[in-house]
Design a protein that fits this description.
Largest sheet: 4 strands, antiparallel
Strand content: over 45%
Number of helices: 0
Number of strands: 11
Distance between the termini: 23 Å
CATH class: Mainly Beta
Structural class: mainly beta
Shape: elongated
Mean pLDDT: 94
Order of helices and strands: EEEEEEEEEEE
Number of domains: 1
CATH topology: Methylamine Dehydrogenase, Chain H
Length: 123
């Protein structure tokens, strides 16, 4: 999960089905917690980050991608791109100060497999 606190939006990446679900977290009585948006994402999501400065959402998935979405306004989200990582590489860390995303690739007991960290520069 990731939070856009200033706009009262909670971003949740679900696995089955693989979706980005955006919730309204502002307390308004019966509408609190309502779903604002549901968007298909890559399979086996693990980590999700919200870059509040650039209004960008990053989701790393075991399918082997980082899905990137732009928050157009508090209720609308646009898919930008899928950045390839490696299958099984789902654990990640977004460091806004460094403008980088780090993705952990696990070791698998097979030929040419090695654990490593992939580093992606954010523009």
């Amino acid at each position: 999960m990731a939070l856009d606190q200033s706009n009262h939006r909670l971003f949740v990446a679900t696995r089955d089905p693989a979706k980005l679900i955006v919730f309204d977290t502002q307390y308004t009585g019966s509408d609190s917690g309502k779903i604002i948006s549901e968007i298909n994402i890559s399979a086996d999501p693990d980590d999700i980050f919200y870059d509040s400065l650039n209004k960008i959402i990053y989701i790393s998935s075991g399918e082997g991608f980082i899905d990137i979405f732009k928050q157009q306004d508090v209720d609308h989200y646009k898919f930008l791109t899928k950045v390839p990582t490696e299958p099984g590489a789902r654990t990640s860390l977004f460091v806004s100060q460094l403008k980088k995303i780090y993705v952990a690739v696990p070791y698998y007991d097979k030929e040419n497999s090695e654990a490593k960290i992939l580093v992606y520069e954010i523009k």
